[in-house]
Write a structure and sequence with these properties.
27% strand; 13 helices; five-stranded mixed sheet; alpha+beta; UbiD C-terminal domain-like; Pnp Oxidase, Chain A; globular
């Protein structure tokens, strides 16, 4: 299901919001998308502030929300879609499965990647611009203090000299009409490949990919396994070769930027990231763009930083790795990386408890499955892990801090956690915590009785027998 098919399906289901009024890329579009967070929104008349100002990267005071945004007479040739990834229902539609089964589809594709087929050409190359001009694309400025105009739904494809193709998300700051600054997270796939090379590293940046490809690009397979092959295991993902380099890209991409990841550095940031806090300035690699290709009717996709679609795309693809790690030590039945934990730092792990220490083992394994995880809660199968009230009830009735709390001090952690310790060039570090909120199998007073920890249900009744027919 490409983006055009998704837009059609979302409209048919009544999910899509279409905005036909002029909207500016400078703060306004992001503000409107935020007000619609959770729903896909298609902006058909997207305006800019003028290419000279964009190229100069001028930073001036901008209007605060709910005031009149300046609209110029420069209209971008592409509509902008936001919110496509902002609800599990949308992923379920793309994967043709119930929302609570997405984890298992991802886990199966993660375990059994399939070679993506190579085809001669595809829609992504219907229009070719060499070298192309980045200021013709509706990069957004999301917050007044952002460093500039960013692409946030960009998946970079490159080739590691030792392990082959790698596809991963990177925020991209537009520096001018030909150059981008790319945030590469230290010791991740793209950063590792870049550091292995002395010359420029060819790169292809895809904007506007099908949801199943976005999910695959968010996963972290072992070296040598391509995220594009995981995508093929989720849904057909034909690839075509780039025009200016030997890389391959999904044919259903809306826009492709072909270029070179150089060893020249530029200041990237500040930027409001996943945790909705301001990420710091860093010296990051510069990408030189050689060619831009796109569909004739291309739709530009934008991800709203720190909001639902950003969180779901970050969190859901990590659930299978936690699921797999926990299943090595206990019987895991489901995993939910929660939005309240920025869909990155908190997870609820559901297990079928068979041994007294399964909860403790499961919690420890969860941190191995997702290295950035900060807090984990382990619950039984009678707890709805997607209902925060149910999880809190399990903690309230089944957890004792002196018995069930685990604290792991000074652990490698996420650079996105503003409370962690961040030293430039080093892995961020944080204390981590797990709560075993499963039913205890024993206590200081002797064996526990599981029935004492289960809700006592009321019998079901037919309300039609008791309510008057108001009509």
């Amino acid at each position: 299901m490409d983006i055009h098919q998704f837009v059609t399906a979302a409209a048919e289901k009544g999910w899509l919001v279409t905005i036909d009024k002029p909207v500016s890329v400078e703060l306004e579009l992001a503000a409107v998308a935020h007000a619609l967070d959770g729903r896909p929104a298609l902006f058909t008349e997207v305006r800019g502030q003028g290419s000279e100002r964009q190229r100069a990267g001028v930073r001036t005071p901008y209007p605060i929300p709910n005031t009149q945004y300046p609209i110029s007479n420069i209209q971008y040739p592409f509509p902008v879609l936001t919110g496509m990834a902002s609800d599990r229902r949308y992923f379920a539609l793309a994967l043709d499965c119930p929302p609570d089964q997405i984890l298992f589809r991802l886990a199966d594709a993660f375990r059994h990647p399939q070679p993506a087929p190579l085809v001669e050409s595809g829609p992504c190359q219907e229009v070719v611009m060499q070298p192309g001009d980045l200021t013709t694309l509706p990069f957004l400025k999301h917050w007044p203090d952002d460093a500039g105009y960013y692409a946030t739904a960009a998946v970079a494809i490159l080739r590691d000299p030792d392990f082959g193709l790698n596809a991963s998300f990177h925020r991209l700051l537009r520096l001018d009409e030909r150059r981008l600054a790319a945030r590469l997270v230290e010791r991740r796939g793209a950063d590792t490949a870049w550091r292995k090379t002395q010359d420029d590293l060819p790169v292809a940046i895809c904007i506007g990919l099908p949801l199943h490809v976005l999910l695959a690009a968010s996963m972290s397979p072992k070296p040598g396994v391509s995220e594009l092959d995981i995508a093929q295991a989720l849904a057909p993902t034909p690839l075509t070769r780039c025009i200016t380099n030997d890389l391959v890209v999904p044919t259903e991409a809306e826009i492709v930027l072909e270029g070179r990841l150089s060893h020249r550095l530029a200041t990237e940031g500040p930027f409001v990231d996943l945790t909705e806090t301001i990420d710091i300035e860093r010296q990051q690699p510069v990408i030189e763009i050689d060619c831009i290709t796109h569909r004739r009717d291309a739709i530009y996709q934008a991800l709203l930083p720190g909001q639902l679609e950003h969180k779901l795309l970050m969190g859901m693809p990590k659930e299978p790795s936690i699921y797999a790690a926990v299943n090595e030590v206990a019987t895991c039945t489901n995993v939910h990386i929660t939005p309240g934990g920025a869909s990155w730092l908190h997870a609820v792990v559901q297990i079928e408890k068979k041994h007294p220490d399964d909860g403790r083992k499961a919690a420890q394994a969860a941190f191995r499955g997702h290295g950035s995880l900060k807090h984990a809660v382990v619950v039984d199968t009678d707890i709805d892990i997607f209902d925060p009230h149910d999880v809190e009830w399990a903690i309230a009735t089944r957890f004792q801090a002196g018995r069930d709390l685990m604290v792991f001090s000074d652990q490698p952690s996420s650079s996105l956690d503003p409370s962690a310790i961040h030293i430039p060039g080093q892995k961020s570090r944080s204390d981590k915590m797990a709560l075993d909120a499963t039913i205890p199998w024993d206590s200081a007073d002797g064996p526990a009785h599981p029935e004492h920890f289960r809700r006592v249900p009321f019998p079901e009744v037919d309300l039609e027998k008791y309510l008057d027919d108001e009509e």
